[in-house]
Specification:
Layout lengths: L5 H10 L10 E7 L5 H15 L6 H18 L16 E7 L3 E8 L28 H9 L3 E5 L7 E8 L2
Antiparallel strand pairs: 1-2, 2-3, 3-5, 4-5
Helix pairs in contact: 2-3, 3-4
Length: 172
Protein backbone atom coordinates (compact mmCIF):
# COMPACT_ATOMS: atom_id res chain seq x y z
CA UNK A 1 0.00 0.00 0.00
CA UNK A 2 1.45 3.35 -1.01
CA UNK A 3 1.45 6.53 1.01
CA UNK A 4 -1.03 8.17 -1.36
CA UNK A 5 -4.11 7.18 0.61
CA UNK A 6 -2.66 5.60 3.74
CA UNK A 7 -3.34 8.61 5.95
CA UNK A 8 -6.99 8.46 4.94
CA UNK A 9 -7.43 4.75 5.49
CA UNK A 10 -6.97 4.59 9.24
CA UNK A 11 -9.95 6.80 10.16
CA UNK A 12 -12.00 5.28 7.34
CA UNK A 13 -11.63 1.94 9.13
CA UNK A 14 -14.16 3.13 11.72
CA UNK A 15 -16.61 4.86 9.41
CA UNK A 16 -17.07 2.60 6.42
CA UNK A 17 -18.89 -0.68 5.92
CA UNK A 18 -16.73 -3.67 6.89
CA UNK A 19 -13.74 -4.35 4.67
CA UNK A 20 -10.01 -4.39 5.13
CA UNK A 21 -8.35 -1.02 4.32
CA UNK A 22 -5.03 -2.80 3.81
CA UNK A 23 -6.47 -4.46 0.69
CA UNK A 24 -6.97 -1.18 -1.17
CA UNK A 25 -5.80 -1.82 -4.71
CA UNK A 26 -5.59 1.75 -5.96
CA UNK A 27 -5.79 5.20 -4.45
CA UNK A 28 -5.33 8.75 -5.70
CA UNK A 29 -5.81 12.16 -4.15
CA UNK A 30 -5.65 15.79 -5.13
CA UNK A 31 -5.61 19.06 -3.23
CA UNK A 32 -8.33 21.50 -4.20
CA UNK A 33 -8.09 25.28 -4.00
CA UNK A 34 -10.64 27.14 -1.88
CA UNK A 35 -12.49 28.38 -4.97
CA UNK A 36 -15.61 27.10 -6.70
CA UNK A 37 -13.57 26.32 -9.82
CA UNK A 38 -12.21 23.46 -7.70
CA UNK A 39 -15.40 21.51 -8.47
CA UNK A 40 -14.45 21.38 -12.16
CA UNK A 41 -10.93 20.31 -11.22
CA UNK A 42 -12.31 17.58 -8.97
CA UNK A 43 -14.48 16.27 -11.82
CA UNK A 44 -11.51 16.27 -14.22
CA UNK A 45 -9.35 14.44 -11.64
CA UNK A 46 -12.15 11.91 -11.09
CA UNK A 47 -12.58 11.33 -14.84
CA UNK A 48 -8.85 10.78 -15.37
CA UNK A 49 -8.56 8.49 -12.33
CA UNK A 50 -11.59 6.37 -13.18
CA UNK A 51 -10.28 6.08 -16.75
CA UNK A 52 -6.94 4.79 -15.48
CA UNK A 53 -8.76 2.26 -13.30
CA UNK A 54 -11.01 1.04 -16.13
CA UNK A 55 -14.11 2.46 -14.44
CA UNK A 56 -14.99 5.15 -16.99
CA UNK A 57 -18.56 3.84 -17.25
CA UNK A 58 -19.15 4.90 -13.61
CA UNK A 59 -18.06 8.49 -14.22
CA UNK A 60 -21.51 10.13 -14.36
CA UNK A 61 -22.70 8.93 -10.94
CA UNK A 62 -19.31 9.24 -9.26
CA UNK A 63 -18.69 12.72 -10.68
CA UNK A 64 -22.09 13.95 -9.50
CA UNK A 65 -21.34 12.73 -5.97
CA UNK A 66 -17.79 14.15 -6.03
CA UNK A 67 -19.18 17.50 -7.21
CA UNK A 68 -21.69 17.59 -4.35
CA UNK A 69 -19.13 16.60 -1.69
CA UNK A 70 -16.62 19.19 -2.92
CA UNK A 71 -19.30 21.89 -3.23
CA UNK A 72 -20.47 21.20 0.32
CA UNK A 73 -16.90 21.43 1.59
CA UNK A 74 -16.33 24.73 -0.21
CA UNK A 75 -19.69 26.21 0.75
CA UNK A 76 -19.95 25.16 4.37
CA UNK A 77 -16.62 23.98 5.74
CA UNK A 78 -14.05 26.62 4.91
CA UNK A 79 -12.96 29.12 7.57
CA UNK A 80 -13.33 32.85 6.92
CA UNK A 81 -10.83 34.22 4.41
CA UNK A 82 -8.95 36.01 7.20
CA UNK A 83 -8.12 32.66 8.84
CA UNK A 84 -4.89 31.55 7.21
CA UNK A 85 -3.91 29.05 9.91
CA UNK A 86 -3.90 26.13 7.48
CA UNK A 87 -1.13 27.69 5.37
CA UNK A 88 -0.24 26.83 1.79
CA UNK A 89 1.30 23.48 2.71
CA UNK A 90 -2.04 22.21 4.06
CA UNK A 91 -4.76 22.73 1.44
CA UNK A 92 -8.15 23.13 3.08
CA UNK A 93 -9.99 20.64 0.87
CA UNK A 94 -8.64 17.36 -0.48
CA UNK A 95 -10.34 14.72 -2.62
CA UNK A 96 -9.37 11.07 -2.19
CA UNK A 97 -10.47 8.22 -4.47
CA UNK A 98 -9.86 4.69 -3.24
CA UNK A 99 -10.62 1.47 -5.05
CA UNK A 100 -11.01 -2.02 -3.73
CA UNK A 101 -11.93 -5.09 -5.79
CA UNK A 102 -15.66 -4.52 -5.42
CA UNK A 103 -15.90 -1.00 -4.05
CA UNK A 104 -14.96 2.58 -4.82
CA UNK A 105 -14.84 5.25 -2.12
CA UNK A 106 -14.79 8.99 -2.73
CA UNK A 107 -13.72 10.96 0.34
CA UNK A 108 -13.46 14.72 0.75
CA UNK A 109 -11.46 16.17 3.63
CA UNK A 110 -12.28 19.65 4.91
CA UNK A 111 -11.26 21.77 7.91
CA UNK A 112 -14.71 21.98 9.55
CA UNK A 113 -15.61 19.84 12.53
CA UNK A 114 -19.34 20.39 11.98
CA UNK A 115 -21.29 17.30 10.99
CA UNK A 116 -22.90 17.30 7.53
CA UNK A 117 -26.63 16.78 7.90
CA UNK A 118 -29.29 16.56 5.21
CA UNK A 119 -31.72 19.44 5.59
CA UNK A 120 -35.46 19.12 5.44
CA UNK A 121 -36.40 20.57 2.08
CA UNK A 122 -39.87 21.23 0.77
CA UNK A 123 -40.94 21.99 -2.78
CA UNK A 124 -40.96 25.72 -2.07
CA UNK A 125 -37.52 25.82 -0.47
CA UNK A 126 -35.28 28.21 -2.44
CA UNK A 127 -31.95 26.93 -3.67
CA UNK A 128 -29.65 27.33 -2.00
CA UNK A 129 -31.99 27.13 0.99
CA UNK A 130 -29.52 29.03 3.18
CA UNK A 131 -28.13 31.89 1.08
CA UNK A 132 -25.80 32.92 3.92
CA UNK A 133 -23.93 29.65 3.53
CA UNK A 134 -23.76 29.26 7.32
CA UNK A 135 -25.40 25.83 7.45
CA UNK A 136 -25.51 22.70 5.32
CA UNK A 137 -28.24 23.08 2.71
CA UNK A 138 -28.85 19.35 2.66
CA UNK A 139 -29.87 19.05 -0.98
CA UNK A 140 -26.41 17.90 -2.06
CA UNK A 141 -26.40 15.19 0.58
CA UNK A 142 -29.74 13.88 -0.68
CA UNK A 143 -28.14 13.58 -4.13
CA UNK A 144 -25.12 11.82 -2.62
CA UNK A 145 -27.45 9.41 -0.86
CA UNK A 146 -29.43 8.78 -4.06
CA UNK A 147 -26.50 8.17 -6.40
CA UNK A 148 -24.12 6.28 -4.10
CA UNK A 149 -24.49 3.01 -2.21
CA UNK A 150 -23.95 4.74 1.11
CA UNK A 151 -22.22 7.72 2.67
CA UNK A 152 -21.01 8.92 6.03
CA UNK A 153 -18.46 11.08 7.76
CA UNK A 154 -15.99 11.03 10.61
CA UNK A 155 -13.81 13.59 12.39
CA UNK A 156 -10.11 13.52 11.61
CA UNK A 157 -7.83 12.06 14.23
CA UNK A 158 -4.42 13.15 15.42
CA UNK A 159 -3.03 16.53 14.48
CA UNK A 160 -5.38 17.11 11.55
CA UNK A 161 -8.45 19.20 12.28
CA UNK A 162 -11.69 18.78 10.39
CA UNK A 163 -13.60 15.87 8.98
CA UNK A 164 -13.88 13.48 6.06
CA UNK A 165 -17.17 12.96 4.22
CA UNK A 166 -17.19 9.79 2.12
CA UNK A 167 -19.44 8.02 -0.37
CA UNK A 168 -19.29 4.35 -1.30
CA UNK A 169 -19.98 2.82 -4.72
CA UNK A 170 -20.28 -0.93 -5.22
CA UNK A 171 -18.49 -2.13 -8.37
CA UNK A 172 -19.86 -5.02 -10.40
Amino acid sequence: MGTNGSTMLEPLRQGLPPFDPSTVSSSASCALPARYEAVRGARQFTKATLGQWGLGERFDDVALVVSELVTNALRHALPPAADTASGPQDPPVRLHLMRWTGRLVCAVRDPSEESPEPGELSDDTPFPPDPSGSAESGRGLFLVDSFSDGWGWHPLAGTLRGKVVWALFRLT
